[in-house]
Design brief:
It is a multi-pass membrane protein. The chain is an all-alpha fold. It has one domain: Helix Hairpins. The protein has 4 helices and no strands. It has helices at 8-29, 31-49, 54-84, 90-122. The longest helix has 33 residues, at 90-122.
Length: 123
């Protein structure tokens, strides 16, 4: 049940708490999220230290966050589908496959962005 006085700063604090709880649950229950977060933490200093323009640095960092965001959405979709039923159903499989494809595309975008920015520096 939704609290009657859930507005203003109280709403912001509650929403922040829910977000932290969600990040914690993703870390605890989702191996892919843990792997991508560790990779993002390792890649972030590279983005900050490499000698490229500020817009290029931002693109590199934004794509890291995009991968994490899409992985969180994928995990949420999988949790909801699993909550509804353990039964194998074509629509459940389709939902999970489409969410997985979104993660794959975000990873491709991240790799292409980083490659386009960093490869010219190497050659």
């Amino acid at each position: 049940m939704k609290p009657a006085n859930n507005h203003g700063l109280k709403r912001i604090f509650r929403a922040t708490g829910f977000s932290i709880k969600g990040l914690s649950a993703a870390w605890k229950h989702e191996a892919a999220f843990r792997q991508e977060l560790i990779l993002a933490i390792l890649m972030l200093p590279v983005a900050l230290l490499v000698n490229v323009s500020v817009p290029e640095k931002l693109l590199m960092i934004f794509t890291l966050f995009l991968v994490l965001i899409v992985e969180l959405l994928n995990s949420a979709i999988e949790a909801v589908v699993d909550r509804i039923s353990d039964e194998i159903h074509p629509l459940s499989g389709r939902a999970k496959d489409i969410a997985s494809a979104a993660v794959f595309l975000s990873l491709c975008l991240c790799g292409l962005t980083w490659g386009a920015i960093l490869l010219p520096l190497l050659f």
